Structure formats: C-alpha cells, structure tokens
Amino acid sequence: MDPLRWTPYMDECLQVLDEQPESSSDRSLAALVKMQLLKDEANKLALRCDAPPDAVDGPKPPAAMYVKLLQTQLQRIVQNLPSELQSTDSIIAQLHCTELSIQEVALSSKTGTYVPANLPDIARLDILYACLHAVKAWFDHFFTLPPAAYFTMAFLSFAQLSQCTIALYRLSMLEDPIWDRASVRSTIDLIATLDEIGDRFMRVCDDAGLDVDVEDGNMYAKAVKTIRGLKGTWEAALAPFAKVDPAAAAAGVAGAGPGVLGAGGPMPPGIGEVEMGQFGMEMMENRWFTDIFTPFDF
C-alpha cells in the first residue's frame, strides 16, 4: 500500500486547516501532518547524507546541521499548539517518533556501523543517546495506554511501533567503543519490551469486550505469534552480550561514567554488524515487519 504523494493542493489545505481551525481536533490534525512531513523530509535527508559526493550537486552540509534545522522546526510545531493539545496521546507519540527520525539523519543506513566513523566521539554519543531517549520515551507513553485502546489506534501508531522496535534492536546490537550495550538494556530492554508488547496484544480483545475466537485467530493473536518468533531470533543474536557486569548494567546510561560507556567488549564475527539496508530507515518499505503491527487485513 503506497502512501499518497504530497501535492501543492494538500499544502494549501493544510495551511487553511492550520490558520482557520474550526475545532481543536483541526489543530491537532495539522500538527500531526506537519510532523509527518518533517519525518518524510528527515528520511530524504538521510538518503542524501549517505549518497557519494559525486551523486549530489554541490557540497553537502554536515548531517548535524540538518538535525539542528529539523529539531528547530519540530519544536516550533509543538510550541504553536495550545498546552492542552501538546499532551494528547497522538501528539506525544508522533513527537517522539519524529525526534527519532530526525536524529537518524546523522546515522548511516548503508553500513554496519550505524553512525559514520568520522564523527567525533562526543557527537556520536550524543546522537545515539538522543535516539535511545526518543525510543524509550515513545515506549513509556505507549505502555501507559490500556490494551483496549490499541483496537482503535490508527495505522500510523503501528508504523511508529515498527520504527521504534527496529531502532531499539539496532541500538542493542551496536558495536562502538563509546557505546555500552549493557546501559542500553538497563535503560530499555529489547526482549522485555517485546514480551510486554505481546502480553498487551493478547489482552486487546478481552479488554475491549470483543467476542473473538482466539483459536480461529485474530490480527492481534497472529501478531503475538510473529513477535514471539522475532523474539527468539533477536534473543539468539543478543546472547553473546548477555554476560555483563550487573553493577554496570544497573548504573544506567544517565549515571554511567566514562569507563562504563566504553565497556562494550569485542564481538564475535558477524554479530552486531547490522546491515542497515535490511532494516531501512523508511519503515513502510519493510512490509514483513510493519504488517506485524497492522491491526487490519488489507
């Protein structure tokens, strides 16, 4: 299912909706669309940053400059909303997911390093931690919602779930001298997160009061089976990193000192060398994964 192309007419409609809202939901919709357009722009810029120099007309600005520009635009979108709308579920979720996409502009989508090696250590750490913070913030909010609410969620929410889950996998597997995988797990554990998603999806139909025969299968039960299979694969991939210093893991990212941040040990060949083309930045292209979280049979 290909998304509609953005047109000048749509841009005019968005402007009218934003400048002449008839209800608070109009303003929320306009903000959501603006943030989605910002995410799309971030995805395009990520591809541009990955392109070889001879494939781009003129010199390319550093990726960090794009990140700063997009962050400023994102802050402006949210700040222009009334305070009561800034705290709605849809705005909060889209805000964190857009922030993740913006930070990913500076990440490489073609190499297993995830972050270009020519960035200074502090810059790499800032980008990676910003991604981790955005992912955790998104899941923290997602898990405050009752399972019954998932039944009425828009498709966009499940696409966000795909993006954040894959980003968490990347961060959990990343091999970099400045990155501590134990601190990632102590901040938000990938396997525990998959378990929580599965448990909540299994409760959706009952909590929503739906009379569904689980044995015959429903979209959420099918999703749980796939998530469990995914969990087994990722659990095996993470197994070499399981033996960590409990004290270091308990310290977390925020309280970790320089020694902890550099505590990631050497990895067996092939482990952690995540091929970004396999998990591309644009989640909608990964139908095998996005479909897991799609609550409709298209």
Written description of the protein model:
- It is built from 14 helices and no strands.
- With 298 residues, it is mainly α.
- The chain folds into 2 domains: 1-106, no CATH class; 145-298, no CATH class.
- The N and C termini lie close together (9 Å).
Helix content: 55-70%
Cα distance, first to last residue? 9 Å
Count of alpha/pi helices: 14
Mean pLDDT: 77
How would a textbook summarize the main sheet? none
Total number of strands: 0
Query: What portion of residues belong to β-strands?
Result: under 5%
Summing up helix and strand content along with how strands pair, one would put the structural category as mainly alpha
In short:
The protein has 298 residues and is mostly helical. It has helices spanning 8-19, 24-50, 63-79, 83-86, 89-103, 121-142, 147-150, 155-173, 181-187, 190-207, 219-238, 246-255, 258-261, 287-290. The chain contains 14 helices and no strands.
Jot down its keywords:
298 residues; mainly alpha; 2 domains; 14 helices
